[in-house]
Amino acid sequence: TAALETGYGKRRDADTLLADARAFVEAGAYSLLLEMVDDEVAARITKDFAVPTVGIGAGPSCDGQVLVFHDVVGLSAGPRPKFVRRYADLESEATAAVARFFDNIRSGAFPSDAETYHMPEADAQEFLAERRV
Asked: Do 120 and 96 belong together in one domain?
């Protein structure tokens, strides 16, 4: 697999991408990953070459599509690329869960006895009675 990416909307970059795709295919690439490539360029590469294309922000013309898992479920903080569609907002849920976890640690509510391993009582008494340094 060969990966190709470029800025958007530049004819010079489109020509370079097409030439790079040709070189990769001639060198034996069995697929092309097109990242942040204009749809028109992705469509041309998909049409012109016999290897499958997979797009990540390269429009609907590719043979397959990829999104990073963290982007799909909304775990990526900060600005996101135009092509990312979030299908959930787990970032806010994860942040709230971690805050509750820290609160439970500070208050002593975690770990509780139900979340703690214990030795059998006789073994614990024997172990604790021994003086070792």
From this structure: yes
